[in-house]
TrEMBL record:
A GO CC annotation given for this chain: membrane
Keywords in alphabetical order: Membrane, Transmembrane, Transmembrane helix
Cell location: Membrane
Family: Belongs to the UPF0057 (PMP3) family.
Parts of the chain that traverse the membrane: 7-24, 30-51
Protein name (record): Uncharacterized membrane protein YqaE (UPF0057 family)
PANTHER family named in the record: HYDROPHOBIC PROTEIN RCI2 LOW TEMPERATURE AND SALT RESPONSIVE PROTEIN LTI6 -RELATED, UPF0057 MEMBRANE PROTEIN ZK632.10-RELATED
A Pfam short name: Pmp3
The organism of origin for this protein: Pseudidiomarina maritima
Main location (coarse class): membrane
Length: 53
């Protein structure tokens, strides 16, 4: 159930979903950059980070 909630959060605010999964690591900063470049790449990266767990 936790992963489903993280994926929903990642769709609404991708960096927050990544932060909840991995903290302030490299994936968080990559996601910030991707989200600034385009909302969809940020969502894709966030869902990938959450799903690969």
């Amino acid at each position: 159930m936790g992963d489903l909630l993280r994926i929903i959060i990642a769709i609404l605010l991708p960096p927050l979903g990544v932060f909840l999964q991995v903290g302030l690591g490299k994936h968080f900063w990559i996601n910030i950059i991707l989200t600034l470049l385009g909302y969809i790449p940020g969502i894709v990266h966030a869902v990938w980070v959450i799903a690969k767990k």
